[in-house]
Structures are given as structure tokens and as C-alpha cells.
Amino acid sequence: MAANSSSLNGTHVKTIAILAGDGIGPEVTAQARRVLEALNLDLAFEEAVVGGAAFFAAGHPLPPETLDVARRADAILFGAVGDPRCDALERALRPEQAILGLRAALGLFANLRPATLFPGLENASALRPEVARQIDMVILRELNGDVYFGEKGFRTAANGTREGFDIMSYNEAEVRRIATVGFEMAKRRKGTLHSIDKANVLETSQLWRDVVTAMSADYPEVTLTHMYVDNAAMQLVRNPGQFDVMVTGNLFGDILSDQASMCAGSIGMLPSASLRAWSGDNGLYEPIHGSAPDIAGQGKANPCATILSAAMLLRHSLDDEAAAKRVEAAVSAALIGGARTPDLGGTMTTSEMGDAVLAALM
Ligand code: NAD
Question: Which among 263, 286, 312 is the end of a domain?
């Protein structure tokens, strides 16, 4: 139990921070909150402004009060940030800085992106239906290290040519930390873990591979396979059914998770979690999409990605697998029953889609 849970009449009330953000963020988080409330768990909700909404209300995309709410909570349900009215602001004040600030302040280093094709959505995938049907995996991406955070800059070589450089590195502790999440997740799923690297040419990857291999002795129930990232990208579209949990570094995970998401259908269907430990305390859960200003305020947004993010919150931060499965089954049943927002080829509004999921939950 997180230290921030409060006790009321002997029951432990878990606090969920809702940071709805901008554009369609408030529309989709409202539906996810309805679903969480319908589960009749001991949950308390605390809302706070973030992103462009926070900039206009408080002068900063991540005001200290919002960070306090996030820190106090057992888990954070995040909508999306991004507002075209903020495009001309200096970078530090842009809405998107809020999510980077939250990840850094809360030490969220493990990004989980499940990619699952729900029955009935085969034609939304970029893959052939019989291949798309195999997709049910989680890509686990390290968020705080790798080439994105190494020394970087521009320099001029002896012959006067300008060059850019970005240093790639991982240390053993960083690899162990993310690989632990990967092994633990694999243990709870199908017992297989693919570790993705480029150890044939990169020393960073060789160290990654050595550490993961050594750790596998502690997880005899998990079958570990190493795969080079170029092969993994190819296998992901050729035979995605072979993957269940993939663990990889920041750069490779960035690319592979976007590839996997489009294999699984609409952007409106894909949830994510960012964790700072396997236990999931203080985890942040959000749809992979942004604030979609083109459809904001029109009731066209698909809330399923956020509802499925709430299911991940139940699983990883509240340790309530049964409730998580109930929510996922309700989304699946609603889709099988024909519920479709415009991104899925239907006409339902955001709240009608929420109604359909709630009806399937009862
Ligand atoms: P986007 O994900 O917001 O939208 C891309 C396209 O997908 C749009 O056509 C949009 O209408 C559609 N779409 C997105 N979510 C949908 C949903 N739930 N249902 C139906 N259709 C949906 O990406 P973008 O347009 O590149 O970015 C818009 C803003 O969001 C930008 O300011 C960007 O920086 C921000 N952004 C924020 C996050 C985040 O908060 N984590 C992530 C990505 C982008």
C-alpha cells in the first residue's frame, strides 16, 4: 500500500489524481472516471490543472499545486496536453513540458505500452486481419536514459565539417531497473520476455545484453530471448504473435512502440503507463494520443484509450487485477456489441461510448 493512502472507517481509500489537461483530455478522462466510479472501490479523486489549461489559469504548465496533487496520489490519470494557442510560448512554458516535468519529478522510468487488437477492429489495423489478430503484447520502454540524455552537441572536425553528436549510454543499474519490470511482467503474463538491443554493433547494447542475461538466472520461469532491433521491427509486422513482453531502451522503444500501436488499430484505443517501480506507486496512466485540437469539444473523441489506461492503473498501482480485467472485458464487450466512435467508423459520441462501456460493466 502506498504511504499516501488514507484510512477511513478501517478501509483504505486510494487517491487518484485526475490531470485532464487540454483539448479532448477533459472529455476522455471524464468517461474513464465514470468507469472507475462504477466499480464501487474505495477511491477518492482529486483534480488539478495541467498543460495549457494550467498555463492560462496559473501561468505555468505544471504549477507546484498540481505537482503536489500528483505526488500525494496513489496514481495519476492523465488526459493530454497541447494547445495551439501556446505554440508561440518559450519552450519551458509550453503545455507539453508538463508531462516531461511529471516524469522527471516522479522518477517515472518504465513506460508500458500494451498493444492489443480488440475483436472486431481487425480492419482498423495497418496489417492484414489474420496477422493483426495475433497482436497482444506489451512494449516496455526505458524512459530516463539512453542517447536522449547523453552528452550532445555540435562540433567542427579538423577539415572544417560540422557534425552533431549524441552519446548513447546505459549503466548496469539502469538496465537492471527496467529489466526487473520486464521479468516481473513476463512472469505474470505468458512467461516469455524479448530483450531488444543492437549488441552486434553497440557496446551500450552489449552491456544491456550481459546484464539481462545474468538476471535471467533469478527468473527460471521466464524464457528470455534476445533480438536485434532491426530484426524485431521486421518480426513485429511479419509475426507479431511471437511477442508478449518486449523490454528495450529509450530510443528503440520509442520507435517500436509507435510501430506496434499502428499495427493494433486506432490511436483512440491505446493506453499507456509510466511507472517508477514494479509496484506502480505513483504511476501515471494516459492514452498514447495527444489533445487532438481538431476534434476537441465536438464529442468525437474515442475515450477507450483512457478507459483502458484506468484499467492499467487498477492493475499496476492499485494491485487490483480483477477490476482491471473487468474494465478491459467491458471495453471488449462494447466493441463486440458494435459501439464505435468516428475514428472506428461509427457515429457514437464520447459519452455514448462511455455509456456503452458502463453498460457492459454492469
Ligand atoms: P493527437 O494524438 O492529438 O491527434 C492525432 C490525430 O488523431 C488527430 O487527427 C486526432 O483527431 C486523432 N485522435 C487523437 N486522439 C483521438 C481519440 N481519442 N479519438 C479519436 N481521434 C483521436 O496528435 P497531434 O495532433 O500530433 O498533437 C496535438 C497536440 O497534442 C499537440 O499539442 C501535441 O504536442 C500534443 N500531444 C500531447 C501528448 C500527451 O499529452 N502525452 C501526446 C502526443 C501529442
Answer: 263
- 214-258 pLDDT, tens digit each: 999 999 999 999 999 999 999 999 999 999 999 999 999 989 988
Q: Assess whether pLDDT exceeds 70 at residue 11.
A: no
Q: Whose CA is nearest to atom 43 of ligand 1?
A: 290
DSSP state of 237: H
What are the backbone angles phi and psi of residue 280, rounded to the nearest 5°? 85, 5
Q: Indicate if 292 and 247 belong to the same structural domain.
A: no
Distance CA(125)–CA(119), nearest Å, equals 11
Give tens-digit pLDDT for 142-162.
998 999 888 989 999 999 999
Query: From the CA of 332, how far away is ligand 1's center (Å)?
Result: 23
- C-beta separation of 226 from 257 below 8 A: no
Phi, psi of 149 (to 5 degrees): -115, 0
Residues 258, 315, single domain; the answer is: no
Q: Is 261 helix (H, G, I), strand (E, B) or coil?
A: helix
Spatial distance between the Cα atoms of 294 and 336, rounded to a whole number of angstroms? 28
Ligand 1 atom 12, closest CA: 292
Using the 3D structure, point to which of 228, 263, 298 is the last residue of a domain: 263
Range of the domain at 77: 1-118+268-362
Q: What is the pLDDT of residue 258?
A: 82
Query: Residue 243 belongs to a domain with what CATH number?
Result: 3.40.718.10
85 and 210 co-located in one domain: no
Contacting residues for 257 by C-beta, under 8 A, at least 6 apart: 111, 113, 115, 139, 141
348 lines ligand 1 (CB under 6 A): no
Distance 25 CA to ligand 1 centre (A): 10
**Are both 98 and 218 inside the same structural domain?**
no
Q: What does pTM read for this prediction?
A: 0.89
